[in-house]
Amino acid sequence: MDNNILDIKDLKVNYITDEGTVQAVNGLNISLKKGESLGLVGETGAGKTTTALSVLRLIPNPPGKIENGEIYFEGKNLLEASEEEMRHIRGNKISMIFQDPMTSLNPVMTVGEQIAEGIEIHQGLDKQKSMEKAKEMLELVGIPKERSVDFPHQFSGGMKQRVVIAIALSCNPLLLIADEPTTALDVTIQAQVLDLMNDLKEKFDTSMILITHDLGIVAETCDKVAVMYAGEIIEFATLEQLFTEPKHPYTKGLFGSIPNLEEDVDRLKPIRGLMPDPTNLPKGCTFHPRCPEAKETCKKREPVSIDTGNSHMVKCLLYEEVSQSEGAK
Amino acid sequence: MGEPILRVEHIKKYFDTPKGLLHAVDDLTFDVDKGRTLGLVGESGCGKSTTGRVILRLLEATDGQIHFNGKDVNKLNKKEMIELRKDMQIIFQDPFSSLNPRLSVSEIIAEPLIIHNIVKKSEIGKEVSRLMDVVGLAERLVNTYPHELDGGRRQRIGIARALALKPKFIVADEPVSALDVSIQAQILNLMQDLQEELDLTYLFITHDLSVVKHISDDIAVMYLGKIVEKASAKELFKNPLHPYTKALLSAIPVPSLTKKRDTILLKGEITSPINPKPGCRFAARCNYAMDRCFNEEPEFKMVEGQHEVACFLMDK
Amino acid sequence: MNSDVATKNNASTKTKSKKKRSQWSEVWRRLKQNKMAMAGLVILTILVLLAVFADVIADYDEVAIKQNAAVRLQGPSKDHWLGTDNLGRDIFARMIHGARISLMVGIVAVSIAILIGGTLGAIAGFYGGKVDNIIMRFMDVFLAIPSILLAIAIVGALGQNLFNLMLAIGVSSIPGFARIVRASVLTVKDQEFVEAARAIGATDTRIIIKHIIPNALAPVIVQGTLGVAGAILSTAGLSFIGLGVPKPRPEWGAMLSDGRQFLRNASHITTFPGLAIVITILALNLLGDGLRDALDPRLKQ
């Protein structure tokens, strides 16, 4: 835990709605070392964004509620921090990039002002100095500083996302959370933005949590990968481990669903069925109704996360049994 | 090669905007052979969706001819056009906004049957069930409304509605872009099965290159209203010739550690197709642009086999 | 027919095989959950019943308009629940007869406005271009005149009677409805399902009736309920300045106006009709807001 910058332990988040309680995050554990990049992969409704918002304590309440868990950032439990302390952390030590660059910028402020705002608040610089720093940040993300007086609508989608990145990095955060930062962008622009993010991450030695549904992006930017399903992390491994030897049937299913560019596949092998209803999660392993390898016990017993070697964590009964029978020998 | 079911010749679609004339589709010519899939790829704003709509005459072409099964689509009157709609259908990108929220699943699928008198009134219910079965929708969903269903199921409704008229040709406009990967794979498989079973021809419009490679026989790459390259899917991915295609292919993040591609980063971003400058549309971002590219427009021509490209680099 | 079909047997979703429920029963179900809207609806129902059975409860000629100097300016009592006015008429009787007029004017005026304004707005929205421009600029001119002033002018020109009053108030709210319907049609028209309908060969008429109108209706219904409230207020206002329903027919606004000289020593004369107006309008607004939520099929919390 010493050199971990972030430690999330047994996090549980529920949303209470008219239709029932949505169990968005269910006992999630993540740890992240300084300078590391973690890819948080999963489909819509897996609880990726909720996890990210929990770290910043930005879960809308009501309907959302953090039921349980601890989030240690630099050794301090954020869930016990005061609102005042959180304000000092948000945008300063932890910053976030949202999916849609079109709506995350304020349309009536110039981009320079928007970048300078955070610098002024967190670094105690005066207006003029903050603006100078803002211009530097713009240059850093590849936008000429003369454009700091322009308004967001005068920028294209890719440029706006660069501005958002500049805002996020303006206070040298220790942790950057990027929620689908390139989903709204075209491929060629996505390539530019990812390239930029990789460069800047190295330059500032920032830790990063990259939320995405695209395994291709993970392969290009992350060191570690956590695969989420129905509010749980069902597999956690290094990039090499996950891509060379995916273990959980869901992870394997995800790989089978992606059309492969390298070889010709006649038919994709999709995961059957749909995401479970989050207000009424299946008993036992939440993935069992869709799992091709499900057994009778999967319907009853909930798997625990186990280490299958070299910190490759999997939450699946198939592996629990293997390790148990090995232990018996 | 089979005979072309669709032949598009020099179609153009311009929009009058306050800023000037927007060349959304600028002089496209291509064929689609019966029973095959032509993938139309490009980034946002390149005119690929407009092309699909012009072919179906949901938008009137500014110029050019569209021959479908030998008929000149643009010359048909209203009645003949309605008749032709039986043969040409469309599947939309957004499975939410493309379904009327006030109609139930059965009403949505039955509508084309009613409009065209496909089956007797008493048989409509049966035909709707059959179509739902074909696209893999459970019978019990027949009286639900679109907003009660997830994206994948909604997209299946859209497909069932398109299939109701037993079309020969379907324009699929980004049919899986709004879906999660696992659901996306289900829908792609469904579309392939339907193609085989019903001998369908697809014009598959998408920005996702991995999807287009998977489903298409041939691929046309569009940039700012023009097709810059067209070849068979295999050939295009093995041997891309146009600098834009090369950059596009290299930019795809590949979910694999063994094959890292060297990403070719393009300069700048897509320019606007409003009052485009003379010369090659891609010249401003091209890493190989020569003087000539800014003055003359490269001709779209066959280079080797069935591989067509519009680029001066091919003139060596 | 393929492995994907397995999807349909997926048991993890809650969607039960249910009987077909019509859209309207669905709207009613959602409306019932909204307590404030139901309160509005109950108040309105009582009001309508009172208005319908006004003759049974209190005879019009004998109680509502017959003057009786002996009992003038009395406060609420057993004989006169809400007291009497300066001419000795029973205020409760006058109020329930007044409810008839207020509700009728409200409903008829709004119907006129929806019919004319709605049609114009729908045409402008659907066809766009020049047609749109001509209709909407004309409406803008209309909007530039304060609606109460317009109503005064119409009543003044055509003469003071109940029909002209309804016409005046109806006409003055035409531009509002035209704008709402146009905006609503414009958003619906650009939705992909309209394009989808065109792609399966639906005619313009079918598209308008089956696809555009049902989806454009919600804001009109909401605005309609609020419009009734506005119309009742306008009637009261016109009556107050003496341009409303001719005397001696009881009308809430006129009652307010008549009672204002006696505000100091017989405030009940103005209090009760005033309360009636406030409660009716509140009820209509509550119902209108409730309908707005209930009519949106996508609004599921």
From TrEMBL, chain A:
Q: Name one GO cellular component term.
A: plasma membrane
Keywords in alphabetical order, please. ATP-binding, Cell inner membrane, Cell membrane, Membrane, Nucleotide-binding, Translocase, Transport
Q: Which InterPro entries match?
A: AAA+_ATPase (IPR003593), ABC_Ni/Peptide_Import (IPR050388), ABC_transporter-like_ATP-bd (IPR003439), ABC_transporter-like_CS (IPR017871), Oligopep_ABC_C (IPR013563), P-loop_NTPase (IPR027417)
Q: Output one GO MF annotation.
A: ATP binding
Q: Which Gene3D superfamilies match?
A: P-loop containing nucleotide triphosphate hydrolases (3.40.50.300)
Keyword 4Fe-4S among record annotations: no
Q: Where the protein is mainly located, per its record?
A: membrane
SMART domains registered for this protein in UniProt: AAA
The domain of life is: Bacteria
ABC transporter domain sequence ranges: 6-255
Do the record's keywords include Transmembrane helix?
Answer: no
How does the record say this protein sits in the membrane? Peripheral membrane protein
BP terms from Gene Ontology: peptide transport
Where, per UniProt, does this protein localize?
A: Cell membrane
Family named by the database record = Belongs to the ABC transporter superfamily.
Q: Which PANTHER family match?
A: ATPASE AAA-TYPE CORE DOMAIN-CONTAINING PROTEIN, OLIGOPEPTIDE TRANSPORT ATP-BINDING PROTEIN APPD
Name assigned to this protein: ABC transporter ATP-binding protein
Native organism = Wansuia hejianensis
From TrEMBL, chain B:
One biological process term from GO is:
transmembrane transport
| Alphabetized CDD domains for the sequence | ABC_NikE_OppD_transporters (cd03257)
GO MF terms, alphabetically ordered: ATP binding; ATP hydrolysis activity
The cross-references to SMART domains, in alphabetical order and at most eight, read: AAA
Protein's UniProt name: ATP-binding cassette domain-containing protein
Q: Where is the ABC transporter domain?
A: 6-249
UniProt keyword Transmembrane helix present: no
Q: Which family does it belong to?
A: Belongs to the ABC transporter superfamily.
- Keyword Signal attached: no
**Which InterPro entries would you find in this protein's record?**
AAA+_ATPase, ABC_transp_ATP-bind, ABC_transporter-like_ATP-bd, Oligopep_ABC_C, P-loop_NTPase
Query: Which species is listed as the source?
Result: Wansuia hejianensis
Keywords for this entry? ATP-binding, Nucleotide-binding, Transport
Domain of life assignment: Bacteria
From TrEMBL, chain C:
List all membrane-crossing ranges: 101-126, 138-156, 216-245, 265-288
Domain of life, per lineage = Bacteria
Signal sequence interval, chain numbering: none
> Which Pfam families does the annotation name?
BPD_transp_1, OppC_N
Q: Which family does it belong to?
A: Belongs to the binding-protein-dependent transport system permease family.
* PANTHER family xrefs: D,D-DIPEPTIDE TRANSPORT SYSTEM PERMEASE PROTEIN DDPC-RELATED, OLIGOPEPTIDE TRANSPORT SYSTEM PERMEASE PROTEIN APPC
Query: What's the name of the protein?
Result: ABC transporter permease
